[in-house]
């Protein structure tokens, strides 16, 4: 009887299953890594808004605005108002929110900046006097 060289179906199936598991693991890790990167982008944007509000707007005006945008936070990179999925601050679906409080005639005494994160709890920054 001649011995045939090559792989058996079982050996091929084991290799295919192993390769499939490695690919699944790779893509899960990649998705987690991408989500963590987007979370870091969100935190960076919220920190930029916070410092623009505190060091720019509040120091100049003595109050916080009812809404924030490129128009009243000129010291900030305008692209940071757009979240990683392309939704602008204040629009439905944005992971960023600005919540003013104790407002009178468009002048607010407090605010909360919030970013909805994918891998962690919401990232929140409040005005300095409210900490």
What would you say this structure looks like, in words?
The chain is α+β, with helices and mostly antiparallel strands. The chain has one domain (10-130). 40% of the residues lie in helices and 18% in strands. Strands 1, 2, 3 and 4 form a four-stranded antiparallel beta sheet that branches. The longest helix is centred in the N-terminal third of the chain and has 53 residues, at 9-61. 18% of the residues are buried.
Characteristics:
131 residues, 1 helix, alpha+beta, 4 strands
- Secondary structure: number of strands: 4
Percentage of residues in helical conformation:
40-55%
What ranges have pLDDT less than 50 throughout 5 or more consecutive residues? none
Q: Oligomeric form of this entry?
A: single chain
Number of structural units classed as domains: 1
SSE pattern: HEEEE
N- to C-terminal separation? 84 Å
The description of the largest β-sheet is: 4 strands, antiparallel
Beta-strand content bin = 15-25%
Mean pLDDT, rounded to whole units?
92
C-alpha Rg (nearest Å)? 25 Å
- Helical stretch count? 1
């Amino acid at each position: 009887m001649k011995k045939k060289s090559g792989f058996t179906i079982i050996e091929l199936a084991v290799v295919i299953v192993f390769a499939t598991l490695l690919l699944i693991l790779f893509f899960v890790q990649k998705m987690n890594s991408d989500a963590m990167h987007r979370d870091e982008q969100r935190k960076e944007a919220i920190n930029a808004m916070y410092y623009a509000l505190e060091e720019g707007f509040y120091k100049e005006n003595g109050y916080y605005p009812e809404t924030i945008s490129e128009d009243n936070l000129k010291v900030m990179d305008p692209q940071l108002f757009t979240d990683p999925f392309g939704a602008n601050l204040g629009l439905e679906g944005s992971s960023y929110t600005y919540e003013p409080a104790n407002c009178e005639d468009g002048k607010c005494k407090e605010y909360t900046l919030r970013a909805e994160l994918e891998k962690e709890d919401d990232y929140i920054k409040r005005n300095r006097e409210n900490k």
